[in-house]
Design brief:
Layout lengths: L3 H29 L4 H28 L6 H6 L6 H6 L5 H22 L7 H23 L23 H30 L4 H32 L10 H26 L3 H24 L15 H22 L14 H31 L9 H21 L13 H18 L4 H18 L3 H6 L1 H22 L2 E8 L3 E4 L2 E12 L3 E12 L2 E6 L2 E5 L4 E5 L1 E4 L3 E12 L2 E10 L1 H21 L6
Antiparallel strand pairs: 1-10, 2-3, 3-4, 4-5, 4-6, 6-7, 8-9, 9-10
Length: 624
């Protein structure tokens, strides 16, 4: 029996000791003005990362070597798993996913320590002390309640296999990106807390916080996009967002992180909105912790049933409460009333950004209430319930419209004073918006109004002098991504067509102008599953469009069935087929969808990330 798991557990124990020691020694060193405190904090931060990385590599090797004497490997691994999924199985369950989050957090901390290895003052060592304290709390929880190296004696003959719902390339990319986002945003929160402890959250601290929050926001955005793409490709219901509690768990810190970037921008440029920036940094960290509680405690009903861990709910809640209360207490203890040195009036850029922050806060509150209400309802003993898409879509729709309107109105704004709109610019913007609404009115009121607002926003953003366009290019690209995403949501919701039918081989089903022809049935043998695959030709009149191959898979080890949709992608439309239960000889229950603009949603997200990264690249300044 290999002793690798024991070495991994010892590494976690040592990492816990190192984390606590780093926190205490660094904090006391800053208080006593030790000149070597930052060097000490730097070195021990790197040691902490090395120990966590070693433990993670040991767990990965246990999966690769099929060591089924490790209980976690036996629960989530199997010899027949493909190579990529065998690695992704490391974070396919509770213990491994927490270890991955800890690895990302300690990796960000090590990178921070390396980047500012020559910095002076107490801000940076205090930041490392806060990060070490957070990592220590997570390490203690892992060691005491979520040990991934627990032995199974006698060893299992074969693994239980990875949950079939997780056997997708999305598992390889989606969780690491989310945890990279959470880890980087935790660095921003630690910076804000360290600045509070140091006595001043000034423009320099806001600048450094912005520089670390922005790439983390990009990673979180990309992770959420991949999650929606994964759901669209795997769950077989033709949608990209379900408003599931687990989805909301990642959306909530994304909303506050988006507000944080805007607030930090004002703080570093004008020295105002400091309390907004500090509180948003702390709230983003708290919501990241809340996401872990929601996903891993099992106290909320979710389609992500593989994530339920009822026995750890109380320790997770204690961990969440302790870290959250500590962050809020530091803010309440050290925050002082800042008198803004800058003044502004009229419809200035400051006013526009303040309204944007209020909108972000309102949206976060709506999503938070809709997500937590079922938990409170259940804890009160009233039974179980879930809050779904009708609530979120109805309540959030007005906020989305106001946000699009606000982005357009804020275009070309100046610091301190009102923006000036030329008559030509106002006329072009209104004319294009009205024309768009009139053209799309037959598609429905929501589609017409939504598209009109998007055109308003884009026209107002881009109809500016060349000098302004060059200066504001990152923001223009990011806001154009918002517009493209909004168009995708509007058209995918307003033009979706679907039909369910029992279809036999050789039969055709009409949906609008399109025909789905069941050509043939194929039997497949995968690495760890067998499948029935239907070949379905899609045409419009006599013009062939594509052939899709939905599958009905049977996973041998778990004795579980999964439906793999067949999807044909076009620049404007998508054609989607799902193969359901067998209802007769070569006859199956099937669902067909025709949708417009789904790819625009993910394209808009990529454009938002591109604009943000361009701003980050342009923002290299002396403060950094």
């Amino acid at each position: 029996m290999l002793l690798l798991p024991e070495f991994g557990y010892i590494a976690l124990l040592l990492a816990s000791v190192v984390g606590v020691a780093t926190t205490l020694l660094t904090a006391s060193g800053c208080y006593r003005h030790w000149h070597t405190v930052y060097r000490l904090a730097r070195v021990w931060t790197w040691v902490l990362f090395g120990l966590v990385l070693f433990a993670f590599v040991v767990l990965t090797l246990s999966f690769m070597l099929n060591d089924f004497s490790v209980n976690y490997v036996a629960q989530h691994g199997h010899r027949d798993l493909p190579f990529g999924l065998k690695i992704a199985a490391v974070w396919g369950g509770h213990e491994g996913s927490l270890l991955l989050w800890l690895l990302c957090l300690s990796g960000w901390s090590a990178l921070f320590a390396f980047r500012y290895r020559h910095a002076q003052g107490n801000l940076f060592p205090l930041t490392l002390a806060v990060l070490a304290a957070i990592a220590s709390a997570l390490l203690m929880f892992i060691v005491l309640f979520s040990d991934p190296f627990t032995r199974l004696l006698p060893p299992a003959v074969a693994g239980r296999d990875l949950n079939p719902m997780l056997q997708h390339i999305g598992l390889i990319l989606h969780p690491p990106l989310l945890y990279l986002g959470y880890g980087g945003l935790t660095v921003s929160a630690a910076l804000a807390l360290a600045a509070l402890l140091n006595g001043e959250f000034d423009a320099r601290a806001a600048w450094v916080c912005w520089r670390w929050a922005l790439p983390a926001w990009c990673a979180l955005t990309l992770g959420i996009m991949l999650g929606s793409w994964w759901a669209y490709n795997e769950l077989g219901w033709g949608g990209w967002w379900f408003w599931d509690p687990v989805e909301n768990a990642s959306l909530l810190p994304w909303i506050t992180a988006s507000a944080l970037l805007h607030s930090l921008y004002v703080t570093r440029m004008r020295g105002i909105f400091r309390h907004w920036s500090m509180m948003l940094a702390i709230l983003t960290f708290i919501l990241s912790l809340l996401g872990t509680l929601i996903v891993r405690s099992g106290i909320l009903v979710s389609v992500h049933a593989f994530a339920l861990e009822h026995d750890r709910a109380v320790p997770l809640f204690i961990l969440f409460s302790a870290l959250s209360m500590a962050a809020l207490l530091i803010y309440g203890w050290r925050a002082t009333t800042y008198r803004p040195a800058a003044r502004f009036c009229g419809w200035s850029r400051e006013i526009a950004l303040l309204l944007a922050l209020l909108l972000f806060a309102a949206v976060a509150l709506v999503v938070l209430l809709g997500t937590l209400y079922p938990m409170v309802y259940g804890l009160a003993g009233w039974g179980k319930m879930s809050v779904g898409a009708p609530y979120f879509n109805t309540v959030l729709l007005p906020f989305a419209g106001v946000m699009l309107l606000l982005i357009g109105l804020s275009a070309g704004g100046f610091w301190k004073r009102s923006a000036r709109w030329s008559t030509r610019r106002i006329g072009c913007t209104l004319a294009l918006s009205v024309m768009t609404m009139l053209m799309l009115w037959p598609q429905g009121v929501n589609v017409a109004l939504g598209a009109g607002l998007v055109v308003w926003m884009l026209t107002a953003q881009w109809l500016q002098p060349i000098t302004a366009l060059r200066q504001q290019l990152p923001a223009l690209l990011a806001h154009s991504g918002v517009a493209l995403l909004a168009l995708g949501i509007i058209f995918s919701a307003g033009s979706k067509q679907e039909i369910s039918a029992n279809v036999a081989q050789g039969e055709q089903i009409a949906l609008g102008d399109y025909r789905f022809h069941f050509l043939q049935l194929n039997l497949l043998v995968g690495q760890n599953y067998t499948a029935e695959q239907a070949a379905i030709a899609i045409s419009r009149g006599d013009v062939p469009i594509a052939t899709v191959t939905p599958e009905r898979r049977h996973y041998n080890v778990r004795q579980q069935q999964m439906m793999e949709p067949g999807i044909a992608w076009g620049p404007i439309r998508e054609w989607y087929a799902v193969m359901g239960e067998k209802t007769g000889e070569n006859r199956y229950a099937m669902r067909f969808y025709v949708q417009t603009g789904i790819r625009w949603i993910w394209g808009g997200g990529l454009l938002m990330i591109g604009g943000a990264l361009l701003g980050w690249w342009r923002g290299r300044q002396a403060y950094d």
